[in-house]
Amino acid sequence: MEALLEIDNIEVVYNKAVQVLRGLSLRVPEGAIVALLGSNGAGKSTTLKSVSGLLTLEDGEVTAGEVRFRGQDVKGIPPEKLVRNGLFHVMEGRRVFEDLTVEENLIAATYALSGRKPSLSDSYELVYNYFPRLKERRKQLAGYLSGGEQQMLALGRALIAQPDLIMLDEPSLGLAPLLVEEIFTIVARINREQGTAILLVEQNAAVSLAIASYGYIMENGKIVIDGPTEKLTANEDVQEFYLGVGGAEGETRSYRDIKHYKRRKRWLS
Ligand SMILES: Nc1ncnc2c1ncn2[C@@H]1O[C@H](COP(=O)(O)OP(=O)(O)OP(=O)(O)O)[C@@H](O)[C@H]1O
Ligand SMILES: [Mg+2]
């Protein structure tokens, strides 16, 4: 069956010189939460940018393969048109307008939506229902929000557009564990209650796999392992290198160094 988002064997090159994606494929079915995991520099953000059309702003190009949203090739479709079609990309690093208030940030997110624009007051309520803290702070400048609140606002900006697919780039980055849990719980609720599909890009495998139904792990520009969450979490390599099972507290990060080689060897052999 055709999935909502289909990335089919894409290759991406920056500056006509540096190849970053090397035949990457993944699918996000309608209404699903799919996790895309991988360490620094694996190409996760590049993958999202090649879907949303932001790649061209960075002199990047999809040189092979195809990305389809609702069966339609996204090539050449401007990013704002994709937003109108129901695809919203929440970029890495909580991009909000710091000099605008919370509410103005939400309004700004609806500008791209002419034709599809939901009633504004209903949409505010929708956002504030999931993020009561944003309601309390709606007249405050976004620049004064805490990191967690800014991440909530970035999510709120996606939600107000009422998309069918939200691509979330590392929402846990730099946030305390409790806050990460709070935000991921809300993401799962949005998915469940609004039917919004989520493509969740993360380095934090444990929290992502806790809410996703399917996961992909990428390394060096391509997927090295994928499967339904239960299967992935039962996989020994995934446990050892991404979930830190069996290791001492805080050892999860060691997959970046010594174990890196061992893992690659096992997966690729
Ligand atoms: N605009 C660019 N021009 C040239 N190279 C780039 C550009 N953006 C990213 N890269 C390179 O592409 C590779 C993948 O980067 P990308 O940001 O997609 O990784 P990532 O998996 O999102 O990493 P992180 O977890 O650190 O966010 C890196 O080697 C990076 O240096
Ligand atoms: Mg990234």
Automatic annotation (TrEMBL):
The keyword Nucleotide-binding applies. Signal peptide: none annotated. Residues 5-245 form the ABC transporter domain. Transmembrane segments: none annotated. Keywords: Amino-acid transport, ATP-binding, Nucleotide-binding, Transport. InterPro entries: AAA+_ATPase (IPR003593), ABC_transporter-like_ATP-bd (IPR003439), ABC_transporter-like_CS (IPR017871), BCAA_Transport_ATP-bd_LivF (IPR052156), P-loop_NTPase (IPR027417). GO terms for molecular function: ATP binding; ATP hydrolysis activity; branched-chain amino acid transmembrane transporter activity. GO terms for biological process: L-amino acid transport. PANTHER family: ABC TRANSPORTER SUBSTRATE-BINDING PROTEIN, HIGH-AFFINITY BRANCHED-CHAIN AMINO ACID TRANSPORT ATP-BINDING PROTEIN LIVF. Belongs to the ABC transporter superfamily. This is Amino acid/amide ABC transporter ATP-binding protein 2 (HAAT family). It comes from Marinobacter pelagius.
